[in-house]
Design a protein that fits this description.
mainly alpha, 2 strands, 8% strand
Length: 131
C-alpha cells in the first residue's frame, strides 16, 4: 500500500516539493555558513519525495546548536517550504483520494519548519520500534 501511495504522491506533489527543497538547498549552500542548512534541505527533500514508509523521530542528543539552527532555518527557508506544504495539502484534500496525501503533507510541516534535532528513519526499522 505504501508503494501505491508513494507513486501517487510523487506524481501529484512529491516531485514539486522535492524541487523546492533542492532549490532551497542549492541557495543555502552558496555560502560556507549555509552548508549545514543546505544539507538539511536535501535530506528533507528526499523524504518529501518518497515519504510513506518513513517516519521522523526526535534526536534526544541534539542540544542548543539545533535550537539555534532551527531559528535560523525558519527565517531562511522553513517558512516558505511550510507554506508549500500547506497549499499543496489543502489542494490535495479537495478530492477524496487526495485526503491521505493532504494529511501526509500536513505532517511534513513540523519537519519543514524545524529540521535540526530530527532524524528520518524507516518505519519498520528496529531502532524506530525501540523508541
Amino acid at each position: 500500500m505504501k508503494t501505491i501511495l508513494n507513486v501517487i504522491w510523487l506524481v501529484l506533489c512529491g516531485f514539486w516539493m522535492f524541487l523546492g527543497y533542492i532549490a532551497a538547498g542549492l541557495l543555502l549552500c552558496i555560502t560556507i555558513i549555509g552548508i549545514p542548512f543546505g544539507l538539511a534541505a536535501f535530506r528533507i527533500g528526499v523524504y518529501a519525495l518518497w515519504p510513506f514508509g518513513y517516519s521522523v523521530v526526535d534526536r534526544y542528543d541534539a542540544g542548543a546548536p539545533s535550537l539555534i539552527g532551527n531559528v535560523l532555518w525558519v527565517i531562511l527557508a522553513g517558512w516558505w517550504l511550510a507554506l508549500g506544504h500547506i497549499f499543496t495539502g489543502i489542494a490535495l484534500c479537495v478530492t477524496l483520494i487526495g485526503i491521505p496525501l493532504g494529511i501526509a503533507n500536513f505532517k511534513l510541516i513540523p519537519v519543514s519548519l524545524m529540521p535540526f534535532g530530527k532524524e528520518i528513519v524507516r518505519s519498520d526499522d528496529q531502532a524506530f520500534a525501540a523508541r
